[in-house]
Structure to design on (158 residues):
């Protein structure tokens, strides 16, 4: 059998055709994720020592900046209380080893590394408790490494 001027047997041709179909599906599913699902990659921010101080800055009633510091084996701040409809910019870094930062129920998944700051923005449109987990194995206390975002309950901060 001839394919693009190359002589192939029928099994080679089937293998080639399967690879082309799978790659086409893969490329279009990537385009779908980037386009329709609006998934994006974390932004990199220039690191300085001020990012090692955990804090929650209230910009206005529905806009917050959270400076999140990961370290063995927890996140600071470990509890964030915000009203429904808030938009939160998360700036993430680590004090020691590599940690993960995953917000359950949100499309947010970042790496925390010392010397690097990554930023993602999330909007919280429904009330509830959103758990944050470390998803990079970081030592014996890894399974206890979590924090929470409490959305829509009385907002007394710490
Ligand atoms: Cu960790």
């Amino acid at each position: 059998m001839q394919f693009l001027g190359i002589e192939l047997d029928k099994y080679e041709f089937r293998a080639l055709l399967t690879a082309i179909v799978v790659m086409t599906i893969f490329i279009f599913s990537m385009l779908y994720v980037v386009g329709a699902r609006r998934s994006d990659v974390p932004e990199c921010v220039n690191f300085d020592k001020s990012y090692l101080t955990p804090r929650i800055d209230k910009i206005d009633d529905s806009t917050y900046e959270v400076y999140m510091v990961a370290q063995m084996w927890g996140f600071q701040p470990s509890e964030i209380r915000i009203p429904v409809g808030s938009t939160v910019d998360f700036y993430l870094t680590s004090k020691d080893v590599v940690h993960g930062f995953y917000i359950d129920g949100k499309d947010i998944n970042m790496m925390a590394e010392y010397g690097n700051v990554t930023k993602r923005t999330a909007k919280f449109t429904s009330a509830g408790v959103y758990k944050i987990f470390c998803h990079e194995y970081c030592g014996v206390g890894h399974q206890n490494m979590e924090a929470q975002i409490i959305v829509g309950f009385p907002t007394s901060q710490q």
